[in-house]
Structures are given as C-alpha cells and as structure tokens.
Design goal:
globular, Pseudouridine synthase, alpha+beta
C-alpha cells in the first residue's frame, strides 16, 4: 500500500496488492514522454525544443538550456515538471532566434535535443494532454497471474487518482511546512515555494477524501449530490443533470468520473451524500481548510479516478516486469502502480505532472 504524507496507508480498491516490486533501480527504469495539448505553429519568436533528460530536474534542464542559448532562465517555458530519477522527454520554449540542431547540449551531461520548432507564444504550465510511461520493475516478488489480474482491473476500471508522495516532499516536510505557513507560524518569501506548500495541503485533503471513498467502495461510482467530471476535460457538473438510465453506463465506460475537493475559496461543492462524506472527512482538518480559504486560492475539483490507457506489460526476465501506459496530465504513475504492487525504491524529487 502507498503511504500518505501523514504516515497512514492509502487503501487500494482491488484487495491486497500482488506483492512487492522495486522501482527506479536506475534512471532508465522509469521513462516518461509528454504529449502537448496543441501543435506548435512552426513559426514565431519562441523556440520550442523537445529534449531528453536523464538524472536532471526540469528546472535544472531549463537553466542549462537558457545558459546554452543566451536566454534569461525566467523566460524559459515548460508544460509540466518531470522526474529527476528518470529518462524523460519533454518540451521547453525560449525566446531566441537560435536554431539548434538535434544532439547533445554542449557541456551538459544527460541533456539532448530531439527536435526543434517554433511557436508564437511561450509554452505555459499545464499545456499537456498527458504523459506516456514505460516502467521497468525489478525484484518483483509476486506471481505473474496475480499481477496480471490487478493490471487487467486497472485497464477495465481505472485507478484511484491519488497524489503521489512526490507532492509532499521528502518525509512529508511540504505538508508540515504548509500547516505552518497557513496558520501563520512560517513565512515563505519564494512564490514558487509557497505554491508547492499550498499544493501539498490541497493534495493531502484530496487524498483523505479519496481514501475514504476507496474504503467505502464508491471511488468509481456516483453518490447522491455528486459532482462529475467529463473525461479529457475539467468540466464539472452535478450528477442530477445526467440521465439516470445512462449515468451508470457512462461511469463504467469511464466517460465520467466522480470528483473530490481541492479546497480553497469558492468553487462548486457537492451536496447530498457526497457532500456529507466530504464534510465528515475534512472536519478534523478545518484549520488547514480555513487556511487555504484565507490564502486566496480558488476551490477546484479533481477526478477521483484516472483512466489508464494503452496499458500493456510483459516479463522480459524472471522477477522483472515492464509496463507501458498513458495517463492524463496531473496523474501519478507511482499512484497507479500502487494499486498493483507495494513499491520500494527511490522516490522522485520532481512531480511527474502538470502542476
């Protein structure tokens, strides 16, 4: 089972995991390739680079590209953060007239340009449609048949859309710092750091609600008063607007997903049984909720379930499993695999998502 920022274990929907597996024995065991939500125009003042980086954070890669091409690091754009302990392919934008070719970035180990084009606007955070993953698990202590059954369950039902431990920092320090920030005990000058702490607080509250829905077996179905999210969008609407005869079928097809809270000021709230459940789960965390309201962040909703697309796997050697799949932006591969295995190994230091 996965561990929460507070040290509790996140429940999983398919019964006990199939066994234990080691993740990230080396960087090449975790490969991520992002897909932009748009096609660059091919012309404009911003250079778009698709790069492959290994053992490097997104910000380190951005700084290296800025130095190489003579740009201000503050002007470098990227759509999402990617893991340090991985081989990742992602896009960056820089306002420059330079036109580099494909190949290694001079003087920088682990950074290679794969393709270059241009666009009229800077690449903005969140401009992703999803991420493709290819992951090798080693030292797998599980029967292949048991692992296969849980992987098939992922394909047919999706996975709980938990935030991964990367969101909370090493040892969960981001959450403890967030509590101190939101109740006035800590001052943080860095805007980026404040954003990380606020995100950690909201992610923790969402995970608590989702964990309770998993315990009750209602993480992938609509409760009375539910707010639903349309697959592939952030559009949210009350379940009562959906035809009752088709609601269940659309949920099973994963066209629609029940949602949970990213607390803040305003935003849509569920009613009925769904709202009562959220209120009960969040009641012990009212200090954190009220701190977020006072901080001025806007309340939002997040799907409780994530669709696991293009899932495939094979065993290249005994106790070694390779898995490929695609997730929408904002979903965590480690959280998805946590529904199948108890994962051990090096955690990511950078979040594999569009934050």
């Amino acid at each position: 089972m996965q561990e929460t920022a507070g040290g509790d274990m996140l429940p999983q929907p398919f019964g006990p995991t199939a066994g234990v597996a080691r993740l990230r024995a080396e960087a090449a065991d975790f490969r991520v390739s992002e897909t932009l939500a748009f096609r660059p125009s091919g012309s404009g003042e911003h250079l778009f680079l698709r790069v492959r980086k290994t053992g490097m954070t997104t910000r380190d890669a951005a700084d290296a590209l800025a130095r190489w091409l003579g740009a201000d690091a503050r002007d470098v754009g990227y759509a999402g953060l990617k893991d340090k302990h991985a081989v990742t392919e992602q896009w960056f934008s820089l306002p420059t007239t330079a036109t580099p070719g494909a190949g290694p970035v001079p003087g920088v180990d682990g950074l290679e340009v794969l393709a270059a084009t241009r666009n009229g606007r800077k690449l903005r955070r969140g401009a992703l449609s999803g991420n493709r993953f290819r992951i090798r698990l080693v030292e797998v202590n599980a029967r292949p048949a048991a692992a296969g059954r849980r992987l098939l369950a992922l394909a047919h039902r999706g996975a709980p859309n938990y935030f991964g431990p990367q969101r909370f920092g090493i040892g969960g320090h981001n959450l403890s710092d967030a509590r101190a920030l939101l109740d006035g005990r800590l001052r943080v000058r860095s805007r980026h750091r404040r954003g990380l702490l606020v995100s950690a607080a909201r992610s923790h509250l969402f995970n608590r609600v989702l964990a309770e829905r998993v315990r009750r077996g209602c993480w992938d179905r609509a409760l009375p008063g539910e707010l639903l999210m349309l697959e592939g969008s952030h559009s949210v609407f009350p379940a009562e607007r959906e035809n009752e005869a088709t609601l269940g079928a659309r949920l099973r097809r994963m066209d629609l997903h029940p949602t949970g809270p990213l607390p803040g000021r305003g935003g849509a709230l569920p009613g009925g049984e769904a709202g009562a459940l959220e209120d009960a789960v969040l009641e012990p965390e009212q200090t954190l909720v009220e701190g977020l309201n006072g901080f001025g962040v806007s309340g939002m909703r997040r799907a409780l379930r994530v669709r696991v697309a293009l899932l495939k796997w094979y065993w290249p050697a005994p106790r070694t499993l390779e898995i490929g799949f695609q997730l929408p932006a904002g979903a965590y591969a480690t959280a998805v695999l946590g529904a199948v295995f108890d994962l051990v190994g090096s955690p990511a230091e950078d979040a594999p998502e569009a934050a």
